[in-house]
Amino acid sequence: MSTGFGLMAPLLRPSDASAPNVEKVNAELFTLTYGAIVRQLLTDFEDVDEVNKQLDTMGYHIGIRLIDDFLSKSNVTRCTEFKETAEVIAKVGFKMFLGVTATVANWDADGTECSLILDDNPLVDYVELPETCQGLYYCNVLCGVIRGALEMVSMRTEVKWVRDVLHGDDTFEMRLKLLKQVPEEYPYKDDE
Amino acid sequence: MADAPKKGTLRAAYRRAADIKPRDARTWQVSLNAFAFLFSEMVQYNQTRVDNIAELEHRLEHAGYGVGLRMLELLCHREKGNRREVRLLGILSFVHSTLWKSLFGKVADSLEKGTENEDEYMISEKELLVNRFISVPKDMGAFNCGAYVAGIVKGVLDGSGFPARVTAHFVPVEGQPRPRTTILIKFSEEVLQREARLS
């Protein structure tokens, strides 16, 4: 399995990467199912912040499993730096699962923080936020997915929404920040 | 994707289907795995909120109900030119073909009328999409995640004026390792009476 910065460099150029053996399903089923989940959460937890947290947690659970699926289907190999990782997520990852690509932008000086910009987002088709839910980050599950997936390849990150179309902005923008690279621990010492 | 319209400030609870400019809506697809992960999380989340199987099925059905209402509106507008079904066979055919095709990419495997009861119809599927990556542990008995699809069908039927009880069941099939799933539709009395009047 994955080791450290390990296993994600593009052997495949990002533009080639829509894996041909990925089975597809109608996006509307996906969109409406996600909407049903958000509606259930809003009914169960009256508080919008709690719903945001739940969505992030769900995304995290998905992410820790999704990374295996992604690595097995996508033929990418080691990433040598975080910039490559971000590109792989934006071009290969999003494309494989959501059928859209994101753009990576606004890198900071260290190369540990960037923005992922989504112009198109299948999760929000047919969605509007009512007055009572203005604090809701509808797509918060995506933050959790990225965080979970990266944690499984030994990167601890923080992912937050910066711009959200449902709040009136013109695009979706997530801020992805690398907090720490956690080198994987080997269970056995080499010399024993 | 480059042609998607810019979205501005939005207000109400959901946009009417007629306002959506489809970005090639018919063929827009996401990966099956993405859906499977999402559905699995939905089931797992609901498991934490219930005490027994019946409640779990009920919650999944309720979730599907909302989807069904929305699919009905969407499909009526897009596929049928806003024509309304008033006959039983019409709405069953709509569910079996148009709805199934739109949700799952194929028409349902079969549509049958119940032999014992006049008000029962069954739509069967060899392997329901939502059940493909689900394995039900033995201690959950006859629990079927197809309850979500049953909820979708119920939403469509209720929304069209054909109230019914809809449930999902596993039916073992000889020679097949996995049972097939049957969506059982039991129409309410008023539907049958109306149908009799119209015949």
CATH architectural name of chain A: 2-Layer Sandwich
Q: Strand arrangement, largest sheet of chain A?
A: 2-3-5-4
Task: Please bin the fraction of helical residues of chain A.
Answer: 25-40%
Distance between the termini of chain A: 22 Å
Radius of gyration of chain B, in angstroms, nearest whole number = 18 Å
Shape of chain B: globular
Kindly name the structural category of chain A.
alpha+beta
**CATH fold field value of chain B:** Muramoyl-pentapeptide Carboxypeptidase, domain 2
The overall pLDDT average of chain B reads 84
CATH superfamily of chain A: Trafficking protein particle complex subunit 3
- What name does CATH use for the topology of chain A? Muramoyl-pentapeptide Carboxypeptidase, domain 2
Q: Order of strands in the sheet with the most strands of chain B?
A: 2-3-5-4
SSE order of chain B:
EHHHEEHEEH
Give the ordered list of helices and strands of chain A. EHHHEEHEE
Count all strands of chain B and give the number: 5
Biggest beta sheet summary of chain B = 4 strands, antiparallel
Keywords (chain B): Endoplasmic reticulum, ER-Golgi transport, Golgi apparatus, Transport
Subcellular location (chain B): Endoplasmic reticulum; Golgi apparatus, cis-Golgi network
Pfam family, one (chain B): TRAPP
Subunit structure (chain B): Part of the multisubunit TRAPP (transport protein particle) complex.
Give an overview of the whole structure.
Chain A has 192 residues and is of the alpha+beta class. Chain A has a single domain, classed as Muramoyl-pentapeptide Carboxypeptidase, domain 2, CATH 3.30.1380.20. Chain A is 39% helix and 16% strand. In chain A, strand 2 and strand 3 form a beta hairpin. Chain A is globular, with a radius of gyration of 17 Å. Chain B is of the alpha+beta class. In chain B, 41% of the residues lie in helices and 15% in strands. Chain B has helices at residues 32-47, 53-78, 88-104, 147-159, 189-198, and strands at 29-31, 110-113, 120-125, 164-171, 180-187. A 4-stranded antiparallel beta sheet of chain B has the order 2-3-5-4. In chain B, strand 2 and strand 3 form a beta hairpin. Chain B is globular and about 45 Å long. The interface between A and B is large, with 47 and 48 residues.
